[in-house]
Task: inverse folding
DNA sequence: TCAAAAGTGTTTATAATACACCCATGG
DNA sequence: CCATGGGTGTATTATAAACACTTTTGA
C-alpha cells in the first residue's frame, strides 16, 4: 500500500511564453532583456517557475499577468523541453506556451519595468538557452492552428476592419493573400458580425468594422467546421 | 550572481505512453492492469518517472524498452498534464507520448510479466487518473499527423501489401477509403518500393509486397511535400 | 469452373486560385 | 475633381470523390 512516491526524483519546471502581438508593422513578440546572470543582457522569452500548488495553465496565466497586467489571455501549451543542460544554472525543464494578445491592451509601465520590448518576428535577436527552438516550434504551431481554427482574432482589438484581418493572416502565414478570395472565404465562414460603424482613419470612404461572433463560432465547432487559408 | 534556483519548487514528472499497434483486427493500444494501489485492477497507460539525469525522450525510450524489449520505437511527445490532483497519491505532472510499434515485433514474455495486453481502440476500458483524456488527445494527434506525414509505416512490418496499408489508414482515420483513390494517392507520393515478391497468404492470385522508402521520403521532405488522405 | 482477392482509369463534383474595375468621399 | 483605399464576381485550374469490371489461380 503506497501513499507516496518519495523515492522518485523531483525536478524544477519552468514555463516560457511566446507572447504574440500584431500591429501595422506586422507580427511581433514580446521579449525581455535579462538583467541578471547568466546571459545578462541577452534576450529571453517571458518565463517563470511552476509552484507546487498550481497547474501549468495557472502558472502561465500568472506569468502573463505579471508582465502585461492582462487576465484571460488566449494561450496554448505546445511542448516540454528537457535537455539536461538547457539551463546552465541548474537542471530545469521548460513547458512552453504561446499566447496571443491585443497589442494595444497591455500595461506599458509593467513592460518597461521588466525591460521588455516588442520585436518584429522577422528581426528577432538571438535568444538565450533553447528559446530559439521554442520560438521556431511555437510559430509553426501558431501557423498551423490559425489556418485551421480562427484563433487569430485574439490578436486584434474587438472591432477591426477586413483589411486589418487580412494583414494579420498575411503576417501569421507570412505570405500575401488575395483580397477578394480572402473576403469570400471569411464571409463564407459566417463567424463575423458586420457593424454599422466605419473606421474613417484609413480612407475617405471609410471601411466597415467587424466583430468576431464567438457564439456562432462555437455553434459551428460541433460539426467538423474549419478554416483553411 | 546566481548559481542555483534553490528557492524554487520541485515536482515529480511522470511519462505516460500510448503504445499503438495494428493487426487484422484494427488499431490497438497496449495497457497494463495495475496490481498495486491506488486503483489496483484498473487499466492504465504505460508509464514511469523521469530521472534527474535523463531527458524526457530518453525516459520515454527507457519505459518503452522495459515493456516491449524494443529499441528505437517511433514516438512523439504531445502534452503535459498538470492538474493538482490528477494522481491521488502525490502531486505529479505527466508528460504524455504516443508510440507506434509493429505489433508482431515485441517481447510477449515481458508484456505478460507486466500484466499488459492489447485492446482494440474501439473497446478501450475506463483508464485511471486522466489517462482517458490523454488517449483522446493522443489519438487525435495521431490522426492529424498521419494524414499529413506518412508515420503510419511504423505500425507495419517492413514488408506489407497495399491492402494492409489501406486498412491501416482506415483504422487510424476511422473511415473507409476507396481502394483505387487510395492506391493512386499513395503511388503519386512515390515513397514506396514495390518488391518482386508476393504475399500468397491472402489470395490465390497473391498481392505484391511493398516497402517504405525512407530515403526518397526524406529527400521529398525538404520541399513542402505532404500527404493528405 | 468458380470463389475470392488483386489490380486498374475515367468521369464528376468541389475547392482553390487568378484576376480588374467601379465606388465613395474628404481635401 | 482627383487621389486613396473600399468594395465586389467570374472564369480557370487543381484536387478530391465516385464509380465497376477484368485478372489470376488454387481448391
Result:
Amino acid at each position: 500500500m503506497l501513499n507516496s512516491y518519495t523515492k522518485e526524483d523531483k525536478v524544477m519546471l519552468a514555463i516560457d511564453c511566446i507572447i504574440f502581438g500584431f500591429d501595422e508593422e506586422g507580427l511581433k513578440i514580446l521579449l525581455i532583456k535579462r538583467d541578471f546572470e547568466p546571459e545578462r543582457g541577452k534576450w529571453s522569452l517571458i518565463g517563470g517557475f511552476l509552484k507546487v500548488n498550481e497547474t501549468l495553465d495557472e502558472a502561465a496565466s500568472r506569468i502573463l499577468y505579471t508582465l502585461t497586467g492582462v487576465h484571460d489571455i488566449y494561450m496554448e501549451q505546445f511542448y516540454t523541453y528537457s535537455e539536461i543542460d538547457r539551463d546552465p544554472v541548474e537542471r530545469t525543464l521548460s513547458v512552453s506556451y504561446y499566447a496571443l494578445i491585443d497589442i494595444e491592451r497591455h500595461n506599458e509601465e509593467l513592460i518597461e519595468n521588466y525591460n521588455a520590448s516588442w520585436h518584429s518576428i522577422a528581426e528577432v535577436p538571438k535568444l538565450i538557452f533553447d528559446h530559439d527552438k521554442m520560438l521556431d516550434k511555437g510559430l509553426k504551431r501558431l501557423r498551423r492552428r490559425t489556418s485551421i481554427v480562427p484563433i487569430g482574432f485574439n490578436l486584434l482589438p474587438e472591432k477591426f476592419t477586413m483589411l486589418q484581418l487580412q494583414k494579420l493572416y498575411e503576417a501569421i502565414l507570412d505570405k500575401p493573400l488575395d483580397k477578394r478570395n480572402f473576403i469570400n472565404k471569411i464571409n463564407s465562414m459566417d463567424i463575423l458580425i458586420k457593424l454599422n460603424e466605419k473606421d474613417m482613419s484609413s480612407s475617405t470612404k471609410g471601411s466597415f468594422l467587424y466583430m468576431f461572433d464567438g457564439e456562432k463560432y462555437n455553434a459551428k465547432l460541433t460539426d467538423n467546421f474549419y478554416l483553411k487559408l
